[in-house]
Amino acid sequence: MTNNCPYLCQVNTRITQNISIVIKALKRGNAVGIPTETVYGLAANALHSDAVKSIYDIKTRPTNNPLILHFYSKEKAQPYIAEFHEELALLEQAFSPGPITFLVPKTDLVPDLITAGLPRVAIRFPSHPMLRELLSNIEFPIAAPSANKYGAVSPTQAIQVKQHLDGAIPFVLDGGPCAFGLESTIVGMEENKVIVYRHGSIALDDLSVVLGYVPKIKNQTDDLPITSGMVKYHYAPKTPLRYFNASLTPEENIGYLFFSCIPEGFPAHQCILLSDNGDQKQIARNLYRSLIEMDAKGFSGMYIEKPSKKGLGLTLLDRLNRATAKFK
Ligand code: TXA
Ligand code: MG
Q: Is the separation of the CB atoms in 135 and 69 below 8 Å?
């Protein structure tokens, strides 16, 4: 990695549970790894421009791809929000703190580097207890994309953040494995209706129950991506990944990821089981970790079951369609 930013650190990355040393590092302008209930984030003080630049640098992410701001509460976020539509407020009451992000008109306090010059800012109120303790003790917003290199699978454990970013950040705050395992659902308003810009950990069905209608999905585009989920090849492992189908027979040197049981004849050492019973939450929680683990085994290819289009299956399908698109 090129190191032309004074805030990139050169030390080995330490995994820690000490919130106060992580806060000190954030105040100094360092980027650090943080746990959230969705995936681990690469966090920095959103008002410190060199710290925010270092996020883009460390991730090798283009600066036209904006960042989410994380706050303890809506009250703390208020100075940065120009307008919070009442339908978004309904969703906020139902699902925050938790894995949902609101794309809302911003005030001038939000730096352009955060929003890539766009008129709206993405804001979320995470529920992870350790992160909430951190957020309750600082007065600045935290900008945090997922803590992976651009285009790679997002980490859901502290050790995976270290594997991605060792030497580029001083600390990863270890809050254990992420409870949800998939990124937050991103919502905003268009013509007085809620739009889903990224499928995420809150399923479309759950949003619909609160809203009384099924929001439109806008996460496919040929134009400039406005969310990372809009990039066609994203969340991709290095090992070619394809969808499994029932006509396949076991082959040597191939890895298999199954949702509820390992079919007869497939050797256990080549297989990872993502849940005991097909439970979507369990599959979601284990998906990225399992992809990263399988990717590291050095197989020449891997197969994964295709999720259904129900509930969280839509989010799983969105991520896996992108992860497999590169290898068609
Ligand atoms: O669960 C999550 O949301 C995780 C954790 C760490 O909070 N964060 C995350 O951030 O997934 P990231 O950067 O990997 O994906 C968020 C996406 C960005 O790629 C960006 O395109 C979109 O949200 N986004 C952020 N701000 C935006 C804005 N102002 N306008 C449009 N899209 C925006
Ligand atoms: Mg990401």
A: no
